[in-house]
Write a structure and sequence with these properties.
Blueprint lengths: L30 E6 L6 E6 L3 E6 L8 E4 L6 E6 L5 E6 L3 E6 L3 H9 L3 E3 L3 E4 H6 L2 H4 L9 E6 L6 E6 L4 E5 L4 E6 L22 E2 L5 E5 L5 E6 L30 E4 L4 E6 L6 E5 L4 E4 L1 H4 L2
Length: 299
Amino acid sequence: MNIGYVSSEPVEVLRKRPNITVHGINAHKGFSDIAFSSDDNSRLLASDANGSINVWDRRASDLPCLELSTNSSGSLNSIKLSRDNEIIFGASKQGIIYMWDLRGGRSSTAFSNHKEGYCSPLIAVKLSHELEKIWSLKAQSNIVSKEIHSIDIDPSCPYQLAFHLDDGWSGVLDTNKLQVTHIHCPPPPWLDEFDGLTNVSFLRRPCWLLTNSIYIVGSSTSNGLYLLDFYPDSVSPCYVDYNCDDKSNDGTSGQRIQNRFLSLSEGITACASHPLNGTIVAGTKLSSLLVISDSKVSH
C-alpha cells in the first residue's frame, strides 16, 4: 500500500509459492511475522505457519527467491534479522530458536543468482535444554518445552537475543555463546490471586528500550508492564549468575538498575518503543493503545 495517498490499493503484491497437499489442493499458510533488511529495501522476509521463512528480492520477482526451512511443520511465531543483516533468527511454537546464515552456502547462491533455493538452519537451540542447565532454576521449577511468543535483538548489545515464553517467562540467549544468560520468571498466577488460567490465546510482543538493555514485557496475569534489567553483566538482577556485590565495567554499583513493575489500567498484549524519545506504546486486550512517557519508565 502507498501510504502517501488515500488509497487501499497496494502498489505491489508479493506472493509465496503454493503448498500443494497430497490431494492436489493448495493449502494456504498465513504469515506470522515480517522483517526487512536494513541495508537493502528490496529484501523482505516473512515467516509462515508451516515452519518456513520466505525471502523476496523485490527487484527480481514477486515470488520468493529463497525459502529458509526448519525441517518441521511447526509455526514460526517471530523472526529477527541481525544488525549486520547476515543472520536470521526464528522462534517456533515448539520452543526452538533457529538460526540461518545468509552469507554462505546455498543461501548466498540463491540470493546472488535470484533463483529459487532452500536452506536448512545452521543452528537450532531448544530453550528448555538451555534452561535446564541453570541449576538454581531447575531446582525450583519443572522445566518443560514452552511456546516462544517473541524474540528481539537488544539495540544496545547485538549478541543479546531476548525471548518471551507463553507462561510469561522472559530471558536472553547469548548468540555468541549459545547459552541463556538472563531469566525472569514472574510470580505464578496463584500468587497474584489470578482468577483462572493464564490466557495464552494471544501472542504477547515485548520490546527493548533503545538504551540500557531494558526489556519491556506485558504481564500475562495482571494489568501492567515489567521493566526488566537485562544489562549484559552480572550486575543485572536477571543475570543467571547474579552477584549483587559485583561492579560493572564502568565502576558503578550493582544497584544501577532494578526490575520494576508498572501497573496499568488494562492487560497488555504488545509493546513498542519510539525510536527517538523512548516513549512506550502498549496495545491492550481491550483494543486500547496506552502511551507511557519516558519519565515514568526512567530509573
